[in-house]
Give the backbone structure.
Amino acid sequence: MYFQDQDDAKNWDQAPEIAAFSADNKNDLKKNLAEFTTALHASDPDAGQFGQMAKNSRNAFSASHACRLLIISETTENPLEIIHTAAEDLENNTQTCWSTKNAFYGETNCPGKLAFVFPGQGSQYLFMGRDLSRLFPGVLESVNAASEAVDGSGPLADYIFPELSGMENEKTVREEALRSTDIAQPAIGAVSVAMQNVLRRFGITPESTCGHSYGELTALFSSGRFDKTAFFRLSAARGKYMREAGGTGDRGSMLAVKAPLEKIDEIIASSGIDVILANRNSPDQGVLSGPTDAIVQMKSIFKENKILATVLPVAAAFHSKLVAAAAAPFEKKIARVAFRNSNIPVYSNTTALPYPDAPEQARQILARHLVSPVNFIDEIRNMYQAGIRIFVEVGPRTVLTGLIKAILKDRDIFAMAVDASSGRKSGITDLAKTLCALASLGYPAALEKWKTF
């Protein structure tokens, strides 16, 4: 399997450095940065003094200071050049909040409450979370815990982190295996939970949670509504039942459409075809569910209207009556789960409101979730109305971050993803940028724990 020995997994040597500066006013901040630069000029570049200086700066940093600047330097970069560039940006940029590739600045109070947002099926990809697994053994522990709930499919780690031998089409075959609903859902859940645990290590905790489709299960677990064993069992059961939904008959299909939702609703109504708008994802993007032949017809109709529509590679018409066969056994699984109270609201795709405290009512909403449309737009708007201003996508890819920005495009909010590069760049650098972005906003991230065991 891919992973190194766990003793090696804690190696921070290749992780970027974070230099953090804060002061009660901008002039003092500039002075602190200048003193750091002078000391760095005088240091021996081969003696590792920059690392110690950066550590000292993190220990001295306070998110409560009025002005905050954080700088990221990768091991392949010259820290002096990075800091000089940040100093120039600090001098020339008059905005109260800005960021570049290597620097994050803020001089406003923390804008509001923070929420974790968890992705659903479709966000999975090979080696998701791999870089984090090298530093945080809990990533593999989470994957192994999820594996125990998956019946007869082998370790999830073999699907997420396969050993590729270089054979032709091997990657495509592996991606297809990971895409299977019974594997994808618990795999996404395991990686999302692992990323959440990494954030908690640095003091990042949610004041509300939500998820998209399958991600709602992760949101409920994150808030403490049920325990980890129940979460992984429900994840495995949900994926299994959805894979089996429809038996050997038509399980339906889904069609992503890029157009204003009002226009999509209008075309569906005028077509008379048996489909529903199953996902209201953003004001200009929705997903249809329906029988396969109906989805094919709708794709042609949207093409005639010069509207982009793409058939999704899914196992069934999720969030529609075509997966009702999965809802019944899943409801029985839910009935055996002990729901707990929590002071962290979980917003529902179905109602767009927080889950009720009453366990039986919460179970009913979760049981209907499989066959009910996803109203992500109203859900995110309601979270904004409740004071959420920082949305952190916790899990593979950045799909929901883009949707949130589109839904709240005229509002002052901050949306970011832990997996910002979706595996294309260093996942550790992605994490560093998330922490720096939050700290620059005045959120009390525990930067002193960076590069510590």
User: Anything to note?
Assistant: The two ends are 24 Å apart (CA to CA). The chain has three domains: 6-106, 113-245+321-419, 253-311. The first strand starts at residue 17 and ends at 23.
